[in-house]
Amino acid sequence: MDYEGFFGNAIAGLHREGRYRVFTDLERHRGGFPKATHHSPGGLREVTVWCSNDYLGMGQHPKVLAAMHEALERCGAGAGGTRNISGTNHYHVLLERELADLHGKESALLFTSGYVSNWAGLGTLAARLPHCAVFSDAENHASMIEGIRYSRAERHVFRHNDPEDLDRKLALIEPGRAKLVAFESVYSMDGDIAPIDEICDVAEKHGALTYLDEVHAVGLYGARGGGVSERMGLAHRLDVIEGTLGKAFGVQGGYITGSAQLCDFVRSFASGFIFTTSLPPAVAAGAAASIRHLKESEAERARHRDRVSRVRAALDAAGIPTLPNRSHIVPVMVCDPVLCKAISDTLLDEFGIYVQPINYPTVARGTERLRITPSPLHSDEDIDHLVDALSTIWRRIGLRQEAAE
Ligand code: PMP
C-alpha cells in the first residue's frame, strides 16, 4: 500500500472542501486576555481572540494562578502516577469534594478532560449496565457519541431537544430494562438550551437514568455556577452531571458527579479513569480555586451577560446574521465552508481579530459559521472593532455577489 499517497489524498480532499484545519499559533499572556500574540511566518502580531472557551477569563485570574503556583511549589510538576497507583494527590481529593458540592451530589470523579469524562463515564455506564439501551440527543458531542460506540450498547438517537420523540422511543423498550438518557444543557455550536425538566419527566416515567453534559454551562449559569440544572433547580433530578474544568473554569480536566455508588462504580470499572496518569496537582488546585471563586462571585457572570447582549445587539443592528438563542454563544452564520474560512482569514490578516471558522463535521454542511464567544474582558472598543470589521466584510461579500449576478 502507498501509505504516504493515501495520507496525501485524504488531506487534499479536506483542502478541496475548504475544511482543512489550520491551527492559529497563539501565545496567551498572563493578564492580557482577550489579547494574544499571533505567531505567523509574517512575524508576531497582537490579535483579539473572539472564540475562546475560557469564557470568563478565569485562566488568568489571580486567585487561580496563585493556587497553581502554590501547589506547584508544594508538590512539583506531575501527579506521579495513575489515581490507583500513587497518583491520588490531596488536591484531587479536595477538587472532587468541591465538585460534588457544586452540583449538590454525594460524589465526584475527575478525569483528564471533559472528553475523557464523557467517553469513559458514559461509556462505562452504558457498557456495564446489563443490556442497557442508550438514548442520545441527535446533537450530542462527539465525546458522548464515541463513549456510546465504545460501550457497544444499543443506541437510539432522539430528535434534538425533543422530549416527545424521546418518550416515543423509550416506550418501545421493555419496562424492566436498563435505560440511559444522555444529553447536554447548552449545545456548543447553536447555543440552544435543553428542556431539562421535560426530559427528566420522560426519563423518570420510563425508569431511565439521566446523564447531562453541562460542559458549556458550568461556571456560567446558576447562582453558584452549577450550570443550567442549578439555575432551573433540577440538579437533584439528574443521575449524572458531567462537566469540564477547561472552559469557564479556565484550567483543564473533566468530571462526573452523582451518587456515591454510581461514582464508585465508574471509578472501579472505567479504564479511561483507571489506566491513565492523573491531572497535575497544580491543575487540580487551580481548578478548585476557580470553582470556589465562581461559587461566591456573580461579578464575572453579570459582566459576561452584559457583553453577550451588547455583541448580539451590535451584530443585529449591523445586519450580520446570527442564530438566535438564549445562551452566551453567538453563532454568526456564513453557511459556506470556503467563505467561512476566507472571512476568518480576512478578520485575522486585515483586522487583527481571531475567530476560528467552524466547518463540517463539527457542524452540518451548509451551516458553517463563526462561533463568537464574548467574555467579561472584551471592552466596548473590542466589540465595536469586531462588528465594524464584520460589517466591512459583509459589504464586500454583498458587492461581490451583486457583481456576479
Ligand atoms: N462536551 C461538550 C459538549 C463539548 O463541547 C466538549 C469540548 N468542546 C467536551 C464535552 C469536551 O470537553 P474538554 O474540552 O474538557 O475535553
From TrEMBL:
Q: Which PROSITE patterns match?
A: AA_TRANSFER_CLASS_2
Per UniProt, what is one Pfam family of this protein? Aminotran_1_2
Q: Which reaction does it catalyse?
A: succinyl-CoA + glycine + H(+) = 5-aminolevulinate + CO2 + CoA
Alphabetically sorted, this entry's keywords are: Acyltransferase, Heme biosynthesis, Pyridoxal phosphate, Transferase
Q: In which pathway does it act?
A: Porphyrin-containing compound metabolism; protoporphyrin-IX biosynthesis; 5-aminolevulinate from glycine: step 1/1
> In its keyword annotation, does this UniProt entry include Cytoplasm?
no
* NCBIfam families in UniProt: 5aminolev_synth (TIGR01821)
Q: Which family does it belong to?
A: Belongs to the class-II pyridoxal-phosphate-dependent aminotransferase family.
- Protein name per Swiss-Prot or TrEMBL: 5-aminolevulinate synthase
Q: Which organism is it from?
A: Methylobacterium organophilum
